[in-house]
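Q: Hi! First time asking for a complex rather than a single chain. Here are the components, and I think there are two in total. Is that enough to go on?
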Amino acid sequence: MPAGTLYRGREGMWSWVAHRVTGVLIFFFLFVHVLDTALVRVSPEAYDDVVATYKTPIVALLEYGLVAAILFHALNGLRVIAVDFWIKGARYQKQMLWTVVAVWIVLMLGAIYPVLGHAARELFGS
Amino acid sequence: MSTTETSASGVGPVEGASPYSVDNPAPVIEPPRKRTKKTPKSTRGNFEMAAWLFMRLSGVVLVVLVIGHLLIQLVLDGGVSKIGFAFVAGRWASPFWQVWDLAMLWLAMLHGANGLRTVINDYAERPNTRLWLKGLLYTATVFTILLGTLVIFTFDPNIR
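A: Yes, that's all I need. Here is the structure of the assembled complex.
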């Protein structure tokens, strides 16, 4: 791959790509999520049945992925706002991206036990 | 001194001394595209700027609403394992959480719909494709917002 130019192939472009991809994924999940929640208007059993799938180990892993997408989109979104409204935002966009990545890694490590602990207990016994 | 230096009057050394002074000021030239009373009103409005601003304002609010939502649903008090009809009924008994979820629904749906509108504008090049994709997007968005709103407002904990 050729070396990046000022923008192309560098932090600015890749954070834009990641923001786009995570945004579209979250939006598609949101449709599903409103539909599954709407089952509380059908019957308690219908709702509890569909929520039971959210508690299976495979879907728990997908939930961890969803949390990853949401946290990146949220943190990078705050960076975009800083680039637009903070007078030094554009100058520090690279440093801000690496800050976003660092905070994201810390939060994702912290989310392992709460989000995946339930699935681990189910798979390996408690 | 380079030859590109200009004096305060805007006349460089190449042109010689400025013909204008305080007593003989330069004529005022109107900007060619300046809006005057005769200019017709723009019919496009500032929709794209409003959309740009909305993404940032709703984004900040959504960071708080969604991360709070994730903490409650996936982290605190046993994580996902506690969720069920009874848990939903308990939370929606409070107007605070009803308003929270309603605001999250509307802001997230509109924020996401506008994001996807941008994506369609970027990648779908044929006018017909754009029309159909946006038609589908707006239909799905309106349906989902209305369905979610209806569910929050008509929720009945004693459904049976």
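A: The first helix of chain A runs from residue 11 to 37. Let me know if you'd like any chain examined more closely.
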